[in-house]
Every structure is written in C-alpha cells, then in structure tokens.
Design a protein that fits this description.
Blueprint (H helix, E strand, L loop, with lengths): L2 H17 L6 H12 L3 E7 L5 H9 L16 E5 L4 E7 L5 E6 L5 H4 L10 E8 L8 E5 L9 H9 L5 E7 L6 H13 L3 E6 L7 H14 L5 E4 L2 H10 L2 H6 L2 H47 L4 H19 L4 H37 L3 H43 L33 H25 L6 H89 L4 H29 L3
Parallel strand pairs: 1-6, 1-7, 2-5, 7-8, 8-9
Antiparallel strand pairs: 2-6, 3-4, 3-5
Helix pairs in contact: 1-2, 1-10, 1-16, 2-10, 3-8, 5-13, 10-15, 10-16, 11-15, 12-13, 12-15, 13-15, 14-15
Length: 600
C-alpha cells in the first residue's frame, strides 16, 4: 500500500469517527495524516575534518550545492531537500525558538556556510537548499554537517545531539587511513540512537590501497560490535560520470550501491515504519469504535445477561477513569522516572567533567601553559565535547527505557504500546562554549633584565656598603659588590620566572574550570529540557488515550442499558442486524489497516 492509499485509509477512518459521533478520536488521526503528508527522511552526513562530506552530498544530487575547498571547512549545517525550483535560505533561530528564514542566492551560499567567511556571524542555525532531484522527491533530506574541529569538537557534540532526530547516518571517512578511535566511538553511539547507520569510504580514486583500508575498517567495525555497512565511493568519478552520462564509470564510482542503500534501507524502512504506525493508529480507532457496538450487540442478543455485562463494563470504565487520574500508576512511573533521570544524568555529567578537570590541572602542573596552550585547549575541548555527547547518548537511552516502562501500563489495558517519539530532537542544542585564552605571555628579555637589575642593585649594596666601611677592604668592596649583584640578580630573575609560571598555571586552571562550569550549565539545561519534553509528550499522548478509553466505556454502559429497554423482538432483531452490518464495515477498515502493516 502506497502513501496516498495510506492517507486515503486515514481519511476513511476520520469519516467513521464523524459518522459514529466520536470526535475525540479524530485528533490522533489528524496527527497521523500530518506525518504521512510530510514524509521527510533525514540523513546526516558526518565525519572528521576534510573527509569529503560536502562533495559526497554534491555527487549524490548531481549539483554543486555544498561548498568544497581544500583549506576551509563547512561551519554550519546545510540541509538539502526537494523543491520544484532551486532556492537557498539561511535559517536564524530566534530567542523564542521560532525560525526566521533569509533568502540568499544559491551561488553565494558558500559565503555564509564555510569557516572564515562570516558563517555564524548572524547566529545562523543552518542553511537550507531546495533543488528538483529524483533522489529527493520521495522525502529524502541530506544534512551536510560541519567539519570544523572534527567529531571531538563542539560541532561534533552538536552532531551527536542530532542523532536522536535522524532517520539515518552516513559516517564519511576517506581511504587515506583506517578508522580512528573517535570515528569508531561515534559509530558505536550512532548505532544506539539511530535506526540506520552506514560508513562511506571516500576518495577511492586517490589511493591505490583503498581496498586494504576498506578491509581494515570492516574488521574494526566487527571488533567494535558495529553492524554498519561500509560503502566505498569516488565522488570525482561520480561527477565525471554524470557529466559524460557514462554508465560504466558511474557504476565504478560506487554510488549506485550508496543510492540503492538510501532507497531500500533508509527510505524503505522509513516507509515501513510510517505504514506500521498508521496501521496501529487506525486499528486503535477501530477498536474504540467497535467496543460500544459489541457491548450493545451482546445486550441485544442476550437480554438476560445485561446486568452482568453492565457490571463488567462499569469495572472497565472505572479502570479507564483511574488511568486519567493524576495518581494513576503510569503517571507515578513517569513522574518518578523523570525525577530519577534528572538526578542521575546531572550526576553523570558532573562526574565526567570533574575527571576532566583533575586531568587538566595535572597537565598544567606538569608543563608551561605558554608552551602547550594550543594543544591543551584542544584537548580540553575534545574531552568536554565527548563527555557531553556520551552524557546525551546515555540520557536518550534512559529516556526511551522510561517510555517503554510507561507503555507497559497501557499494554495491559489493550491499547497501543508507544507513541512515535523523537527524544531530544526539539531541545538538544549541542552548542558548547569556547574556552577563553588567559594571559600566558612569557616575560621578555627586557623585563628579565629590569628584574635582574633590581635584584643586582640590592645585592651590590648589600656587599659594597659593609665592606667599604672596614679598613683595608675598600679595594675588595667593588669586586664583592659586582659578585653579589650578579648572584642576587640571577636569583631575582629565577624567582620572577617561577612566579610568572605559577601565575600562568593558575590562570590556565581558572580558564579550564570556567569553561567546564559553563559546559555543565549548558549541557545540564539541555538534558533537563530533553527529559521535560519527553515527559510532556508521553503525558499528553497517554492522557488522550485514557480519555478515549473512558469515553468508549461510558458509551458502552449507556447503550447496554438502553438495549435492555428494547422490549419487542422485532425491534431487537432489526437492531442486531444493523449492529452486525456496522461491525462488518469497521472490520473491513481494520482489515485494510492490517494489510497496510504487512511487509511490502
């Protein structure tokens, strides 16, 4: 069943809710229809600095969309989606969270999205490009993520935060070397958050040993327990093949395998998930519609058992009412679970950052910050970014486990298990503050000379004055003064250097602690916001489900009692026929919904 047929099925279910006077069931179907009419499938293209991510996107869509340069890197994400006419825009995130779009010429997009050309100067959140391409028309959306700093940078943390909202991830690594530890760590985390993960080995046309590198990468994936597929490609061959319409060269580029993966694995799985979700929603609505009719049919066919039937329905109604109560078991599980999660996640983040702080201070104590500052700042930033990413991955996993625990309370009552959740998609920013460089300037020769002169002057006086007053020592006094000046002057210089070093170390520690405190504040807030969003999503979804159950049980009780008052056999026979006919219509709708969920 295709997406238009699925939409038609939802429209039929909406007509049924109106015909059977159940407007409370329509809202869920409206949300289902919105999901079907917006079939966007987000694919994140991620990787270390200068691995060929932008060129990969360009080769996939056969257009020079993302800027490619040997010396500069993409600084903000670029989203490429389908559009009837080519267009580009910069999206600015407002303080209230609403996006503001600014249209820019497609040919000047590079001026806004690459490092060193004003990217981010106006708080640009991401760039968006729309082009008419067959690959994108089915809803595929490619996201070229920033390469500045690599996977261990602040941009890498932002990419990690985006995994929870992605439908697929392509990790791009060129054939110059085998997978690095950060790349394997990223793939391991991606497998835990995203349904589709694949590795793309680029630049196979530049390196003769690319097959050996591919074999090594596959071994690394197996050893790490990562079941991601590895696809070797050459973007250069792909672009030449498309320009010359050379089928053999296009096949040699490896892109046919990549395109097949995107269509069959990514788009195909997303379509299957959408159809399965739609099927569950429609089946749930049909179950609610038939509950009332089955209760009335049972009362009409067996008038003697109406009292027992009504009593059973009253008990079911009481259970449904209890589900709406704030003290319901699922509410307690949700609220207590979120409170525990907030405490655990904050403790986990503090523990990770405290470890980094201790290691950073040890590094500073063992070296001169003036000499190692660039390497030290880069190390601190990478460690903090990795800690923030790991904390977010753990928080997302724990949130999903909590959602499963809440769903268990409703699975007992016969409702669907879990709503479609994108935990962290709306609130996790992934932005990390940069560490400010303290004053690590080493005193120059002039300052050392001045310091030595001050010490030498005092040292010369200390030796010259006493000796000049002793008879017979006046001739020795100048030489002693010179020696004392040199001795104490040198000591003054050495002491001043030690004080300056201690000051630089102290300033470096303060800068590192300040940076880590700011990261803890920002990431902690993002994690709390993510959990609150998940809590609200689950609460709102299951509150609606509880209300639907209560309405169905209330109407079932009413119609069962009304059926008892039907005294004539003719009236009862006619009503039984009508109910069976209505049940057949709803069962036909249920059968179509079950067909929708069947494998294509």
């Amino acid at each position: 069943m295709t997406v238009p047929q699925a939409v038609e099925l939802v429209e039929t279910a909406l007509k049924a809710t109106a015909a059977y006077q159940r407007p409370d069931l329509a809202e869920r179907l409206h949300a289902t229809r919105r999901r079907l009419t917006d079939p966007s499938v987000r694919v994140l293209v991620v990787g270390e600095f200068k691995q060929g991510k932008s060129m990969l996107v360009n080769a996939l869509v056969s257009a020079q969309i993302c800027p490619v340069d040997d010396d500069i890197a993409t600084a903000i994400p670029t989203v490429v989606r389908y559009a009837e006419t080519p267009a580009a825009a910069l999206v600015h995130e407002q303080p209230d969270g609403t996006p503001q779009r600014t249209t820019v010429p497609l040919g000047k997009l590079a001026e806004h999205v690459v490092e060193g050309r004003g990217a981010g100067a106006r708080c640009v959140t991401y760039a968006e490009v729309g082009i008419p391409r067959k690959l994108l028309i089915e809803g595929l959306v490619l996201v070229d993520t920033p390469g500045v700093g690599g996977l261990g940078s602040a941009h890498g943390a932002a990419t990690m935060a985006s995994l929870a909202s992605a439908d697929a991830v392509l990790l791009v690594s060129d054939a110059a070397q085998e997978y690095t530890k950060p790349e394997l760590d990223f793939l391991t985390a991606a497998m835990r958050l995203c349904p589709n993960v694949a590795g793309v080995l680029t630049k196979t046309d530049l390196y003769r040993e690319w097959r050996r590198i591919a074999d090594l990468d596959r071994r690394h994936l197996t050893a790490a327990g990562v079941t991601a597929e590895l696809i070797p490609v050459s973007s250069t061959l792909r672009l030449h093949a498309l320009d010359g319409k050379n089928t053999a060269l296009n096949e040699e580029s490896g892109y046919l395998v990549l395109v097949r993966y995107l269509r069959e694995q990514v788009l195909g799985q997303a379509d299957q998930l959408a159809r399965r979700s739609t099927s569950q929603d429609v089946l749930g609505i049909c179950e609610q519609l038939t509950a009332t009719m089955r209760a009335e049919l049972s009362a009409q066919e067996n008038p003697e058992g109406v009292k027992e039937l009504v009593a059973e329905l009253e008990r079911a109604k009481a259970r449904a009412v209890a589900l709406r109560d704030r003290s319901a078991r699922w509410q307690v599980t949700l609220n207590d679970g979120v409170a525990d999660l907030v405490a655990d996640i904050e403790h986990d983040l503090r523990d990770r950052l405290r470890t980094i702080t201790r290691e950073a201070e040890e590094m500073v104590d063992d070296a001169d910050p003036a000499e190692i500052w660039d390497q030290f700042a880069r190390w601190v930033h990478q460690q903090v970014s990795q800690a923030a990413s790991a904390n977010f991955v753990w928080a997302s996993e724990r949130a999903r486990l909590l959602a499963d625990r809440v769903a268990e309370h409703f699975s007992v009552d016969g409702t669907e298990v879990l709503p479609p959740l994108r935990i962290g998609a709306e609130v996790q920013s992934g932005r990390l503050a940069t560490m400010e460089r303290p004053d690590t300037e080493v005193p120059g020769r002039g300052e050392n000379a001045l310091s030595g002169m001050r010490g030498g002057y005092m040292g010369g006086l200390m030796f010259f004055m006493p000796l000049s007053l002793i008879p017979g020592m006046a001739i020795v006094a100048p030489f002693a003064a010179i020696g004392g000046a040199l001795l104490l002057g040198r000591k003054q210089v050495m002491d001043e250097k030690k004080r300056a070093l201690q000051r630089r170390r102290s300033d470096a520690k303060v800068a590192a602690r300040k940076h880590i405190d700011e990261v803890q504040f920002q990431v902690g807030k993002d994690s709390r916001d993510m959990l609150r969003h998940a809590q609200r999503a689950l609460r709102d979804h299951y509150t609606v489900v509880a209300e639907e159950l209560q309405t169905s049980m209330t109407e079932s009780v009413a119609v069962a009692q009304a059926a008892f008052r039907t005294t004539t056999d003719a009236g009862r026979t006619g009503r039984i026929g009508d109910l069976k006919a209505e049940l057949e219509r709803v069962e036909s709708l249920s059968a179509r919904a079950r067909t929708l969920a069947a494998p294509a």
